[in-house]
């Protein structure tokens, strides 16, 4: 199978914060990959904008070093790198002042798509939007890309939305969540809505429960102060896990277009029941061998911020009544993995006695590290000697099934190209962000007012024992982290 590459229109992409970690690690390498496969047109241009006292030549050196560090040698032919660097410019811009804005305006072309990527601290989002607007740099067709975190709570999210909407309309604002750019996440929509096999079964009559796990093997070393003001709820659940939950639980949209898809996602969030205190577990990792843990990495011995959250969530609508969703995310777990597991109910009458109580059917959507889809089914074990049943997995790992030519893109590659196309389907709408915060805020506020501390769990494990009991009390079990 050969990958189809559909070129985008000529564009000027301005990256604010172009010398920062995200730009060097993800944005610039992603753009290089799109250039290499000829998705970027000849006259596309990338303009770095930051406080660093660089000229274009110095910034091109930064870009080259970024590619050498984050793009494999075999994937960056020397001549392609040189051609890519020819499309790079740089402007020293003071976001809070006057410096550099006229120079930036002079670089931009009238007849090209203009996109502005805010790869900066969220406190500058509103300021940058205002500068672009009042200086006439942003046109009515321009787009801005806003990185998470989008607000710290409902109040700040509303304020940020209001600031951006003073200068840009909703159709110009692209709130990026890189999880929505993952190949498997998009395949989830294709799996549900392009196949008659699954959609008739996609309800509480046939699905026992759903597990969503995002596990990380690293701790918060190096970003402990930031993380301690955020925690797993704000950092992962309110955005990444919420987006996965929406795609699993949403009703089929009337058509595959941005607002139709996002309308259905908002309906899911608004249908979420409040989470009971007994249905949520918080944890902090600790390494008993080295006597060091989350509090040490956060630099706060009194911290009650969670590095792990597990919860049971109910969607109050006809499709999902009686089918719980179990969400789990944490730092310093056994391995790095993200997956959605849809566990189907047992047949209503089991004619094979030895199979009673065993849930054999599971659809597992793997987001990382090996993107793919697995369907676990029950079959007869080969050989004579009676009817012995066993479980097998029909595995579609994308790299294996589709071949090297269709090696999965990085999420940022796909999402940035969607910005240039003007396609908002995989980006969050303002009311969607606010609805997610409205659901999450009461949980965070309850923790703030509680005297209960997060449970300790072993670094390199599966999380607190209390999270296991969250499932066991319902007669269910978590899938193993790293299974």
TrEMBL record:
Per UniProt, residues of the Glucose-6-phosphate dehydrogenase NAD-binding domain are: 14-187
Which branch of life, at top level?
Answer: Bacteria
Question: Where are the catalytic residues?
Answer: 240 (proton acceptor)
Residues where substrate binds: 178, 182, 216, 235, 331
InterPro entries per the UniProt record, alphabetical: G6P_DH, G6P_DH_AS, G6P_DH_C, G6P_DH_NAD-bd, NAD(P)-bd_dom_sf
Question: Residue ranges of the Glucose-6-phosphate dehydrogenase C-terminal domain?
Answer: 189-479
Q: Where is this region: Disordered?
A: 450-483
Residue sites binding NADP(+) per the record:
17-24, 51, 148
Any GO BP = pentose-phosphate shunt, oxidative branch
Record-listed E.C. numbers: 1.1.1.49
Provide one Gene Ontology cellular component: cytosol
**Pathway listed for it?**
Carbohydrate degradation; pentose phosphate pathway; D-ribulose 5-phosphate from D-glucose 6-phosphate (oxidative stage): step 1/3
The reactions it catalyses are: D-glucose 6-phosphate + NADP(+) = 6-phospho-D-glucono-1,5-lactone + NADPH + H(+)
Which key words are in the record? Carbohydrate metabolism, Glucose metabolism, NADP, Oxidoreductase
Q: One MF term from GO for this chain?
A: glucose-6-phosphate dehydrogenase activity
PANTHER family per the UniProt record, alphabetical: GLUCOSE-6-PHOSPHATE 1-DEHYDROGENASE (PTHR23429:SF0), GLUCOSE-6-PHOSPHATE 1-DEHYDROGENASE G6PD (PTHR23429)
Q: Provide the function of this protein.
A: Catalyzes the oxidation of glucose 6-phosphate to 6-phosphogluconolactone.
Family that this chain belongs to: Belongs to the glucose-6-phosphate dehydrogenase family.
Q: What is this protein called?
A: Glucose-6-phosphate 1-dehydrogenase
Organism of origin: Shimia abyssi
Q: What is the lineage of its organism?
A: Bacteria, Pseudomonadati, Pseudomonadota, Alphaproteobacteria, Rhodobacterales
């Amino acid at each position: 199978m050969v990958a189809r590459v559909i070129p985008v229109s000529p564009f000027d992409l301005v990256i604010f914060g172009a010398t920062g970690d995200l730009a060097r690690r993800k944005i610039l390498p992603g753009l290089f990959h799109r250039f290499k496969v000829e998705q970027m047109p000849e006259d596309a241009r990338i303009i770095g904008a930051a406080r660093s006292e660089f000229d274009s030549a110095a910034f091109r050196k930064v870009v080259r070093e970024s590619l050498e560090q984050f793009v494999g040698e075999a994937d960056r032919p020397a001549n392609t790198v040189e051609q890519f660097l020819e499309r790079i410019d740089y402007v020293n811009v003071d976001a809070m002042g006057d410096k550099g804005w006229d120079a930036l305006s002079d670089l931009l072309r009238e007849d090209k798509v203009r996109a502005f990527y805010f790869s900066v601290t969220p406190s500058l989002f509103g300021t940058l939007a205002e500068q672009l607007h009042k200086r006439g740099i942003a046109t009515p067709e321009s787009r801005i890309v806003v990185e998470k975190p989008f607000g710290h709570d409902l109040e700040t999210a509303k304020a940020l939305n209001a600031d951006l909407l003073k200068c840009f309309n909703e159709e110009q604002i692209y709130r990026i969540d890189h999880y929505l750019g993952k190949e498997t996440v998009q395949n989830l929509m294709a799996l549900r809505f392009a196949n008659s096999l699954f959609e008739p079964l996609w309800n509480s009559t046939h699905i026992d429960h759903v597990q969503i796990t995002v596990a990380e093997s690293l701790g918060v070393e190096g970003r402990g102060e930031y993380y301690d003001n955020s925690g797993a709820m704000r950092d992962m659940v309110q955005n990444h896990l919420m987006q996965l939950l929406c795609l699993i639980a949403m009703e089929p949209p009337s058509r595959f277009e941005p607002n139709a898809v996002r309308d259905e996602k908002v309906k899911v969030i608004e249908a979420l029941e409040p989470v009971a205190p007994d249905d949520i577990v918080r944890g902090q990792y600790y390494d008993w061998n080295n006597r060091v843990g989350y509090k040490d990495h956060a630099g706060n011995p009194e911290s009650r911020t969670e590095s792990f959250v597990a919860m049971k969530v109910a969607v109050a609508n006809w499709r999902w009544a009686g089918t719980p969703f179990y969400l789990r995310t944490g730092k310093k777990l056994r391995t790095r993995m993200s997956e959605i597991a849809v566990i189907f109910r047992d047949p209503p009458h089991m004619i094979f006695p030895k199979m009673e109580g065993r849930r054999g059917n599971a659809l597992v959507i793997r987001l990382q590290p090996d993107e793919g889809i697995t369907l676990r089914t029950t079959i007869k074990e080969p050989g004579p000697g009676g009817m012995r049943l066993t479980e097998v997995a029909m595995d579609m790992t994308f790299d294996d099934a589709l071949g090297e030519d269709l090696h999965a893109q990085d999420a940022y590659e796909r999402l940035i190209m969607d910005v240039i196309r003007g396609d908002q389907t995989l980006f969050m709408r303002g009311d969607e962000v606010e609805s997610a915060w409205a659901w999450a805020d009461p949980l965070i506020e309850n923790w703030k007012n509680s005297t209960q501390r997060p449970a300790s769990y072993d670094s390199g494990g599966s999380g607190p024992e209390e999270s296991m009991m969250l499932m066991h009390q319902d007669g269910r079990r978590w899938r193993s982290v790293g299974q």
